[in-house]
Every structure is written in structure tokens, then in C-alpha cells.
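Course assignment 3, question 2. Fill in each field.
Student: A.L.
Task: Predict the tertiary structure for the chain below.
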Amino acid sequence: MHDVVRDIGRLIARRDQHMFTMKENLVIQDLAEENTLKNCTYIFLHDIAELPEELDCPQLKFLYMKAKTRFSKIHDNFFKGMPNLGVVHLIEMVLSPMPVSFHFLKKLQTLYLDRCHLGDTVDIGKMKNLKIFVLSSDIKKLPEQIGELTRLKVLDLGQCYGLQVIPQNTISRLTQLEELYMADGFQRSNGSLGELEHLSQLTALQIYIPDAKFVPKGLAFQKLQRFRIYIGVDAWTLRYRLKGTSRILALKYDDANISVEDGIIKQLKEIEELQLIGKQGVKNVLYELNRDGFPKLKHFRVERNPELVYIVDFPKQSEPCVAFPHLQTLHLAELSSLEKICHGQVTLTPNSFCQLRTLDVFIQFTKAEKFEL
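Answer field:
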């Protein structure tokens, strides 16, 4: 999504190019017949009453189009005269079936289908040069042909909330993928999470996983620079999401035999927002999960872990540690065994907890001697 916005921004900034914008009830068919649009490189069409059967725009590189009537159909030959089209942004269009002339767009690299109706099948596999595909649609099954887009770098399905089925071996074939955004429909699909192992170039990931048991052991996340990973969480948990963070991890464990040690938390060293919910086999957060002190963490929420005793507790022989230097909010709830945040002769530098502004505590103290930082 970010790359699409940057593309549009760069195009608008290029004042030396031919740009055409049309709104509401102007008749684009007349302009097409008069060859008025022939030299345009960028066209923005807003709320157009009627689309022509074909537009002769051989220089066109960017097309943004929204018809006045919701779910208007595009004629088969509409794109035939646009061989140089590189970016297409369509809003509320019917693309079932996909217009035949779409296959003439050999230079198309960015396709943004916003609230478009695609039906059950979409013949998109022929767009071999596509690098960015953003889809907001009512589809229930992801087309297998998407796996043929082997040059794809960005796949954004974050607004496909009705998505139920992702065919196996579809995501794994996108080996050049750098950014993948999934809606919560992915958790109901039959696509294997193990396919993510094939995406060695992945640097951005948004994904919802219904249960920690579904996460394959050894799944690597070290290369991720931006991520929103939700494992086992429900809508109630997601309401705590904060704005302004691009590295979020939320984990909910209901099985006492599942441990987060040596897992995903240790791989994602630059987490900015972390939620730990449920019994995770952890008694001491900092020492067991991140001995570097969570150097980037800004927001930390720990709930419903009856085993947790301390947030910070290092052995006496440990080296000095800066613990949570950027932490702004700390939320602790339903931690029946929690005794202290910092325990014993903890070796902390003066910068530990130096940004903390909000501390929320909802605990029934049964064993606590004294609650302190």
C-alpha cells in the first residue's frame, strides 16, 4: 500500500507531463472520439456516467477511474489502446469476467482494485510484469493464477475480509515478494503457513493466525522490518492496537505446554508493541525472552499469565542491562503470581524505563510482598 501511494505522489508531482482530470457527468466518449486524450500520460476519471468501449491513449502511464454508478462494467476492449499503461487504480468496478484487453497491458506494474467485484475466478496470471497488487474485494477464494505473478513484490489483501480459501502452493510461488498483507480471512484458509518459508525476500508482513499451534517450528522472521503479527488473538484483543507503530506482535497462548522461549519474540528484536496473553511458560519476561532489554519496545501488555513472577529479574552475575529504554506504556492484568516488576539486585543502567509514562495494573495480589519498580 505504501508503494502505491508513493507512485501516485510521484506522478502528481510531475508537472511536465500531460494530465487530464474529469469529474461527474462530462461525456468522456466525445473526448475520446476527438482524440483529446491521445497525448495524455496521466488520467483521473471521477464519477463518470458512462465509460466508452475503448480509449485510444498510447502515451498513457497512469489511470485512476471511478464510475458514477457503483459496480459499472468495463468493456472488453477498453484497455486495448493503452499499451504503455504502468499503474491502474479502479474503484467499484465489475471485473467478472476480467476485460479481455487487460491482457494487452504488458507494461502494467501496479494494479489497485478498490472494492471491485471479481467473482469466483480472475484471469490475472497473464500480467507477468506486475510488481504491486492491492486488492480490496468481496472474493472468497484467492485465484490460483496469482501464483504465476512471479515478479510480484507487494501483495496487499488486507481489505479482503471475506477471503476464506487460499489454494496451496499459491503464496509460496511468489519468491520475489517483499511485502505481504493479509486480512483475518487467511486464518480460515487452507493455505499453509509453512509457505512463508519460501518468501526469503519478505521485509513487511501483516498476518492473523488463529492458534499458536498453527505456527510451524523454525519459521524465520529475522528479515522483517515492518510487521503486524497476531497469533491466537480475538477482536477484543485487537481493540488495543495503537497507532504510530509499525512493528506489532500479539501472542495468545491457551496451552500450558507451548512456550515462547527461543521463538518468534527472540527473532523480532525491534518490536515496538508487544502483547502477551495467556500461560506461556514464562516467569521472568526480560531474562527469558529478550536479554537485550527490548531496546525498541514502546507499548507492552501482559495479561492472564498465572505463572509470571517478575518483568525484570537477572542473575547477580549478569552484565549491566538497559531495560525497556523506550517503553511508554505498561499494562499488567490478571497476573496472579506477579510479585514485582523489578526484583532483587537487578543490574540496570539509569536509562532503564526512562520513557515510561503510563502504568496500568489490574492484579489481585495474593503473594506480593511489595509492588515496585
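Instructor remarks: Confidence is low (pLDDT under 50) at residues 4-16. Residues 164 and 218 are 26 Å apart (CA to CA).
Grade: pending
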